[in-house]
Design a protein that fits this description.
The protein is α/β, with parallel strands linked by helices. 51% of the residues lie in helices and 13% in strands. It has eleven helices and eight strands. The protein has helices at 17-28, 52-55, 61-80, 96-102, 130-138, 140-149, 155-161, 173-184, 189-203, 206-220, 223-234, and strands at residues 2-6, 37-41, 85-89, 92-94, 106-110, 114-116, 153-154, 166-168. The strands form two sheets. A five-stranded parallel sheet has the order 1-2-3-5-8, with helices on both faces. Strands 4-6-7 form a three-stranded mixed sheet.
Amino acid sequence: MLVLELDRPEAKNALDRATITALSAILHAVPSDVRGLVVTGGGGTFVSGGDLRELRDVRDRETTERFCDFGRDMCDRLEDLPIPVVAAIEGHALGGGAELACACDTRVAGESAKIGFVQVRMGVTTAWGTYARLVAQVGVAVATELLLGARAHSAEEARARGLVEHVVPSGTARARAVALAEAMSRGAPLAVAYVKELARVAKRNEALRAKERERFVETWLSPDHAEAVAAFFEKREPTFRG
């Protein structure tokens, strides 16, 4: 069993480009004898989102597209692994953190966790193939409501909406995720890999993924996103112009 723990306490495990690149590299090199994987965060937080302190000045199309593609490669690699992948969520899993959790096979949340797709509050869409995954997970209507509602849900709310599958006492998500991944990995490796393959086909819609990428780049470069970032650092509500 392999446990990957994101550990950037100074940024509440926010995803910067270096972290995304490093995580992708690790996922591309998972040893063949590993039978299960748990993704979690240190310091009582899963992933608080993208690292706006690094990304706040990204305003050109090429860099935006590259950031989108780096994150999608990271999530795709989680989904491509022929082994069970379980997210262990404590604390916040917001924005990019929710997208990362969505790319796992199943999710375990501590009861005080907060999970939400808050992207539209920052003037952008999801980016990493997430809408197709979320539709496969919860259906079009719920996925759309979750994205447009753009709020952090409690663990129990998230379970009720299908965002997470298991809620456990706070502080025990990692242990429960490891036990769940071990149980899911006991089947014949080839059969497990083929179940993962079927799930991957069910969750990928290439036309939808391409459209999501296009719209993410457009919204990232929009005045509303610039206003949302400025409002975030100025600790005020944004004024969107559309």
